[in-house]
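Quick one - inputs below.
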Amino acid sequence: MLDDIDQKLLESYQRDFPLTESPYRDIGSHLGIAEAEVLERFQRLQDEGFVSRIGPLLNHEKAGASTLVAIAVPEDAVESSAQLINSYAEVNHNYLREHRYNLWFVVTARDKVRMHEVIAEIEHRIGIDALVLPMEKNFYIDLGFRLW
Amino acid sequence: MQDGLPVCPRPYAELAKQMACTEKDVISAINNLKDSSFFRRFGVIVKHRRLGYDANAMVVWDIADELVEVVGEKLAAEAAVTLCYQRPRNLPHWPYNLFTMLHGKERAVVISKIDGIRQRLGIDSNYDVLFSTKCFKQRGAQYF
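Output:
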């Protein structure tokens, strides 16, 4: 179970995690607990799968070439197609959604040439054309995920 | 770095060791990457599903080209919306040009939030709601 301190650790340090020599100690002073307890809690939150990591969320537009891709595969081919898509290191998100276009994944590569190569290969191996939906404009400013 | 910051008293010094530079170098590099918006943010990345946010909907909208800027900004400002991107239509297969993401603990709540947003903003365009039912992969990107 998550207590109030866990909730604060999850919610308050999504955006401005301290960039100081001892960030966990600074978080501890802010919350009125010892550094050791902050470390123990973050370790537990990661071990129990509440936190995927402490680190950067990249702006894919700037860091490389990236696009959302959707493909409509028959129901009995969902699992095998998803595994095929997952097998590419360039695929970093892959979701099943309730729609005729049922597999939605993000391809991020070092450049556009490689990005399109990966998409063409996936289309060829599954035998179905995909929708390629790159971001044209971002309207959202990311302040982290509000939990409570 | 995408494996995450080590959970130890001097995590940036630990990273510096792996990269053969100084702790100061690591901290100033992260600051620079934030300032130049290569990083959208730097901090705790939570797993929505593990926290009970199981209802994850991509809501897609077919907004007239001349309105997309205005509607995009309004949707992005809604509290329930966690992403708002313009993407190309792909006619005739795909008429939608604005993509938003909404998360909630229950489907019914997410749907009522969508209805609320449509009413509040007066959006009568076609839209579709795509709930995700399974996550096959979710991790940071690899560039190199």
